[in-house]
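Teaching assistant here, posting this on the class forum so everyone can see the example we discussed in section. The complex has two components, and the goal was to see what a joint structure prediction looks like when all of them are supplied at once.
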Amino acid sequence: AQSVSQHNHHVILSEAASLELGCNYSYGGTVNLFWYVQYPGQHLQLLLKYFSGDPLVKGIKGFEAEFIKSKFSFNLRKPSVQWSDTAEYFCAVNDKIIFGKGTRLHILP
Amino acid sequence: GAVVSQHPSRVICKSGTSVKIECRSLDFQATTMFWYRQFPKQSLMLMATSNEGSKATYEQGVEKDKFLINHASLTLSTLTVTSAHPEDSSFYICSASDTGAYGYTFGSGTRLTVV
């Protein structure tokens, strides 16, 4: 069965700090991986996705994620966060888009 | 880019009544749509996969007779919550994909409150 685990439930950072949100998945076949963001009061938006090819994926707003097959991981990173990055971040896997429980990111101005 | 419209955005209904939620792909044809439910401060839970022209596939634990899904065209899927009860109050979200090649586009969600 597919599953997604996000380790950090609530992360608080200061502006300009570096960010890494963990995501591990469980699936026996070929994976498609996604990171979505949900800003306060808004609906889900796609940040980036991995289907195949270069395991380092660059998305919108300076985010990137690296697919490490041996670790079953797809961690989200950003070198320097901004206050506007305050949101909930969801990692998701495959066709049915099975979501992790989300990570609430709070950036202190 | 791809747009998915969900309607209504908010609905309040009386216990025992039925509510229909629409999910439309506005600028692409969606062979597959997904329906999710999101409880406060929790993740999205996949309820069912809606396939155009065929029966929906429900996830384990989701009552298909309570949550009726109809995907009659390539641009419209509907979710009907039948005989709604207060515990059905939640945020319902749909997403659509043409082939999945571009990721999935989400609707803005419907907040259902059953009183």
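For the discussion questions: Chain B has no helices and eleven strands. Chain B touches chain A at residues 34, 36, 42-46, 49, 93, 95, 100-101, 103-109 (CB under 8 Å). Think about how each of these relates to the inputs above.
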